[in-house]
């Protein structure tokens, strides 16, 4: 009878693992479909989806105490948002344009190079002030992106939020709070 119970428990475990496998395939379907060995874009998608899922489950299903759980979930949500910003096109340029104004785009001309057949050079019709404005917008967008990458790396390396607290202290404080 004991051996039947073992096989039943093992069978249930395998079924749950199989269900979890299909849930993960569905959850990661877009990056799985788009994955190429030479492209890191899908790696960022995997990370963003996984961190977002972890943050949600940490907030709703974790049994960790609130004073460590809530900051961890907030940091995970911020890391997820940074990855979303990295994955979306032009988000940093849009932020820079909000601060400095829209990029100035005057149509330029492609001019054939005399010494090279079938080769062209592009000459824009921007004034020096317009070029300076566009440079300011581009540089600010790069600065924003670098700041967010730095913030992301600091979140990943964070020792303060992710540090394990003293197990005994947590247990005692929980006992004291429940006795009131």
Structural description of this entry:
- With 180 residues, this protein is mainly α.
- The protein has one domain (36-165).
- Helices cover 71% and strands 4% of the residues.
- Mean pLDDT is 87; it is low at 164-168.
Name a few traits of the molecule.
elongated; two-stranded antiparallel ribbon; 7 helices; single chain; 4% strand; mainly alpha; 180 residues; 2 strands
Number of domains: 1
- Sheet-strand content, in percent, reads under 5%
**Distinct helical segment count:** 7
Percent range of helical residues:
over 70%
Distance between the termini: 47 Å
- What is the rounded Rg? 26 Å
Average per-residue pLDDT, rounded, comes to 87
Largest sheet: 2 strands, antiparallel
- Classify the oligomer: single chain
| Spatial order of the strands forming the largest sheet | 1-2
What would you call the shape? elongated
From N to C, what is the helix and strand string? HHHHHEEHH
Number of strands: 2
Low-confidence stretches: 164-168
Based on secondary structure, the structural category is mainly alpha
Summary, kept brief:
With 180 residues, the chain is mainly α. The chain is built from 7 helices and 2 strands; from the N terminus they run H-H-H-H-H-E-E-H-H.
List the helices and strands and how they pair.
Elements: H1 2-27, H2 29-34, H3 41-61, H4 66-87, H5 91-100, E1 109-112, E2 120-123, H6 128-157, H7 167-179
Antiparallel strand pairs: 1-2
Helix pairs in contact: 3-4, 4-6, 5-6
